[in-house]
Design brief:
Two copies of one chain form a homodimer. Chain A has 164 residues and is mainly α. Chain A is 57% helix and 11% strand. In chain A, strand 2 and strand 3 form a beta hairpin. Chain B binds a DNA duplex (23 and 23 nucleotides) through helix 4 and strand 3. Chains A, B: GO terms for molecular function: DNA-binding transcription factor activity.
Chain lengths: 164, 164
Amino acid sequence: MTSAATPDPGIPLPVLLSQAGERAREFLQRQLASSRLRPRHAHVLLFLERTGAAGQQELLERLNVDASALVGLLNDLEGDGMVERRRDPADRRRHIVTLSEHGRAAVAEVHASIDEMSDALFGALSDTDRDHLHRILSVMSSGAPATATGCPGRLCGPPDPGGS
Amino acid sequence: MTSAATPDPGIPLPVLLSQAGERAREFLQRQLASSRLRPRHAHVLLFLERTGAAGQQELLERLNVDASALVGLLNDLEGDGMVERRRDPADRRRHIVTLSEHGRAAVAEVHASIDEMSDALFGALSDTDRDHLHRILSVMSSGAPATATGCPGRLCGPPDPGGS
DNA sequence: TATTGTTATACTCTATAACTATA
DNA sequence: TATAGTTATAGAGTATAACAATA
């Protein structure tokens, strides 16, 4: 069991990442409060800014949100005139979500709020470290659909058939 | 507003961090399920493993958990015999929390579970990038008490007096 | 009076299941 | 029958406020 001389380099990486992410989410929440947007609203807007349009299926997979939760988010955003839902002519079951003009303006504000925030969050990091962090997280983000499509084998963790 | 030729290097860093953190938390949750521990339980155990002992005040500040939530977590852990609460003789209001032998064994299991998990989470990253990430997040973790003690001015975001 | 910890309560967020319409 | 989206509901997680003990 060698319970000696293995004092771990510190906190396990997934734990550090989880805690840092929670901090980031809290800061996002605070910065976005003045826009009456929650972090997930911003996630949707930012995704649409990048992709132009997307079906809800794609949104929930890429943003890692539940289907029913996404409906609520889109209802909010559509109610405020930030996004529009249209039927896909090719498959009338699908809703194609796009960003409205008001939505684009909102995204610009979101960017501004986030830029202000960044210094408060990453003040301890050099510009080089921020670049590293951005690149590393981008790689993780691109390469891991996580729960949705990924998990080829049983590597992602069995659902635990039940203990005692 | 020069809405051209400024295609953002990608997703804003705080958003990336928040999303990656959520992924990490979900993976933690899944890996720890077999131990009937939730991520926050593990956070407490890992913190005590590093510090030996801590008052609850210190725990809630460092782990960014609410006081009432911490009580629940410690009740669970103490009920399972993983931690012990003793009065501080110097200040009988304080509870000093320590890791029991069973708690140390549990922490070892937690480390093992997390190590297994790491490959599934960070498989897209090189060892160098994992080291970078670990170092960067450690710096952030050390230097930013966030909500608790930080936020000197109004930089952390005003609570929004209410719009329309 | 201020502080540490506890309890009780309400609120938010998320996940589950059932339903409609299209394919 | 299967899929995209929606709705209703229950559950977990979190924060807020009042309380007891000690300083």
